[in-house]
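JOB MANIFEST
job_type = single_chain_structure
chain_count = 1
residues = 346
[input]
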Amino acid sequence: MSERRIYLDRGVGETRGVVTLDGRPERLLIRRDDDDPRLALGARLVARVASLEPALGTAFLDLGGGVEAVLAFRPDARPVRGQALEIEIRGEPRRGKLAVARAFGPAEGAPRLTAQAPDIAAELHILAPDARMVEGRRAIEEADAAEAEALEVLHALPGGGTLAIEPTRALTAIDVDLGERKGADAKRMTRQANLAALGVAARLLRLKGLGGIVVIDLVGRGHDGNALLAAARAAFAPDNPGVSIGPVGRFGTMELSLPRRSQPLLERLCRPDGAPSDRTVAQRLIRRLQAEGAAQPGARLAATCAPVIASAVASLAELLSQRIGARFIVRSDPARPREQFDVGAA
C-alpha cells in the first residue's frame, strides 16, 4: 500500500511544502513572499470583464492593478463587458499564459481579493490528510531533494531503464528507454518497464507541475493495451478530476490530457534558458548561510557570490538576520560564475 508523507520548510523569503510517495518526492509546493496573492491557486476575487472573444468563448478579466486572468464561457452563459464577477483561480499563470479563472456568479464593487488561497500547510493536509507534518532540518533536506529531482530531465526506472521528460510549448514528451534492464524474456522485460514507467511518470509530472497534453513513447511493440490503460488510470487517479487517457496508438505511444493547475516548477525556479534564476540561486545561498549559522552558533559568516546574486540576496538578508542575527556579510565577486557561491567563517 502506498504511503504519503508531508514536509513543511518555513524558509527565509519562501515556504516550501513536499509530499513524498513511498519515500520519493511527488509534489513540491513553493510560495515566495513577493508572489501576487491574487494569482495563487484557490484565491477568490471580484473581477471585472475587460473584453470578450466570442469566437473563442473566452473573456479577459481585470483583477486590478494591471493583473489579468481568462475565463472560458459557454454560448448560453456569455458574460457582459464591464460586469463584475465572483471568481476563483483554477490555473496559475504560466510563461506566456494568463491565469485561468472559474466564475461563481455576479458580484459588486471594484476588482479585489476577497479570500486568500490556502497556505502551503493547508494544501499539504489536503493532499495527505492522514500524514503527520514534519518541519525543521528534515523538511529542508526533503525540499532540496525534491527541487533537484524536479529539474532533472532523465530519471531512473526501478529495475533498470530510464524515463526522459521534456516539456515543449505544445505538449510534454516522455520517452521510455529499456537501457540496461536485464532478462532473458525481452517481452516480459518490456512489459515491466512500461508498467513501471507509467507510475514513475505520474509521480514526476505531479512533482514538476506539468499538465496539458502528454505523449508517452513506450518501449517495444505489441503492447498489452488493456493492461497499460488500467495501469495508467491507477497511476494518474490522484490528478482527477480532469484526466483523459487514450489507448496505446499504432506507433506505440499513449496520449493523456492532464489538468493544468499550478505553475510548472521549471518556470518557477528557472529562467527561459533553463538555468536557475537569480532568485533561486539567492534562496540556495540564504539556506546555506542559515545552515552554517545553526552549525556555528555565534560565528561570523561570509558568503561570496556573483554581483547579480548579491543583489538578489539583498532583499532577503534582513529577513535572515532576524533568524540568526546580523552576523554575516555577502561579498560580491565579479569573477564568480553566477551559479557558484561560497559560505564559511568570516
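[summary]
Residues 267 and 273 are 10 Å apart (CA to CA).
Helices lie at 120-127, 137-150, 186-208, 225-235, 265-269, 278-295, 307-324.
exit_status = 0
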